[in-house]
What we know:
By secondary structure, this protein is of the alpha/beta class.
Amino acid sequence: MNAFLGNTLQLLRRSIELGGFPPELYEFLSRPKRILAVSIPVRLDSGGLAFFEGYRVQHNDALGPYKGGIRFHPEVSLADDVALATIMTLKDSLAGIPYGGAKGAVRVDPRRLSPRELEELSRGYVRAVAPLIGDELDIPAPDVGTNSQIMAWMADEYSKIAGRNVPGVFTAKPPELWGNPVREYSTGLGVAVIAVYAAKALWGSSDGKTAAIQGFGNVGRWTAYWLEKMGVKVVAISDVNGTVYKRGGLVAAELIEKNRNARGPDLLSQVAKYNDASIAQDPGAVFGIDADILIPAALENAITEDNVKLVRAKLVVEGANGPTTPEAEKALYERGVVVVPDVLANAGGVVMSYLEWVENLQWVMWDEEETRARLEKIMADNFKRVHQRWVQEKGWTVRDAAYVIAVERIYKAMKARGWI
C-alpha cells in the first residue's frame, strides 16, 4: 500500500478505537464514496497532442457538499489523492463547517507547460469532471501546483457549461472574479494563528519565540509573514534549493508583501540577500535548526524515522498535509515534543474557502479586515476545543484529540442519516 495512504488509514483506525466508535465506521471511512479517473488531451505548442491523467476523489459527504483542492504535480498518484480526500473529510469536520471531503489531481509538472497549455489543461480537467462538481455538490479549490488564476479558468469553464455564472463552484478565485483577498494568504495565516496559540498553551506566551519553516511556497511564505507580524522570530526558511538561517531572525514580511507572485526559489534568494545571509545547499538542514517551533509546510512525509533525530524544536506545527509519519511522531512525543496536526493547523485555507463560498452563494462581499477576523476566530476556537480535549485525555497526542473530535461529528451525522 502507498505509504501516505497507509499512514492516513492507520491514524483513522486509531482515532476510531480511541473514541470507542463501532468498527463498521472504519469500513465506511477507510474508502472513498466515489472515484473518477480521467484522461485530459492537451494540444501542445509544438503541435503534438499530450494526454494527462487526472482524478477526483469524493470521500464522504455526511456533513455537506464535497470540498477539496486540485493538485498539479508530476508525482501525484491515485492513492495520494485518496489519502488527501480522507484528510479533508476530517479537516472539514474538525473545523465545524458544512463540508465533506474530496480531492483532485492531475499528474503533470505545471512548470513545463506554457501559459496557454496550462489553461487548456485546466479547462479540460473541468470538462472531464463537470458532472460530479457544482456549487452545492462538490466545490474544488487550489492545492500544490495550482493557484487563483487556474481557479479563474476553471470557474469560467464551468460557467460556460452551465450557461450561467456559477461563482460558488470553485473557491480561492481572484478578487476580481468573486474571490476574497484573504484567501491568498489564509492557510499561512491559519498556521501562524495556531502556532501562536500553541506556544501560549505550552509556554504561556509566544513573544520572542523562534520558528523554522520548511517549504517556501504559498503556505510557508505567508506563515513566515504572519508569524513576524505576531511577534515570533523566524530564524530559518528552506525550499528545495537550500536553507537560509540567521540566529538573530530573518526579516521577510516586507519582501513577501512586495513579491506576492514570485516563485519560491526567487523569493528565498531575495530573503537571503536582504538579510545578508547565505543559502545552505542542504534543504534538510532546516530540521536541525535550534528553534522553538518547527513548521513543515511543503509536502507529505517530510519528517520521518530517518531525520526525526535532527529535530530540535519543542513544538511542531504542520503546515503541509501529512508531513510527519506516525513513527516519527511517536519518537517526537517520547522526547516531549508536541505535534499540532495538519487537520487543525493548516485548515485556514478550507475555512476561508467556506467563507468565500458563503459570499458567493449570497452574492455578497465582506471586506478584508472583517473576513480575516472571522477566519482567525474560527481557527482559535478550533484550537481551544482540541487543546481542551487533549488536556483531558491522558496519554493522547494532539492529533488523537483532533481526530476523535472530527470522527465524532462525522459519526453523529452518519448515524442521524441512518447510514450506520
